[in-house]
Amino acid sequence: MPEKIVPRSKDYSRWYTDVILQAELADYAPVRGCMVIRPYGYALWENIQQALDRRFKQTGAVNAYFPLFIPQSYIQRESEHLEGFSPELAVVTHGGGKKLEEPLIVRPTSETIINAMFARWIQSYRDLPLMINQWCNVVRWEMRTRLFLRTTEFLWQEGHTAHAAAEEAQEEVLRMLEVYRDFSENEAAVPVIPGRKSEKEKFAGAVASYSIEAMMGDKRALQAATSHNLGQNFARAFSIQYLDRNNELQYVWQTSWGLSTRFIGAIIMVHGDDQGLILPPRLAPIQTVMVPIWRGEEQRQQVMATVERVRQALGDGLRVEVDGREEYTPGWKFNHWEMKGVPLRIEIGPRDVERGQVVLARRDRPGREGKTPVPMGELAHRVPVLLEEIQASLLTRARDFLEQNTVQPTSHEQFKAIVAEGFARAHWCGDGGCEAQIQEETQATIRCIPLDQTRGPGRCIRCGKPAKEVAIFARAY
Question: In the chain, how many domains are there?
Answer without folding.
Answer: 3
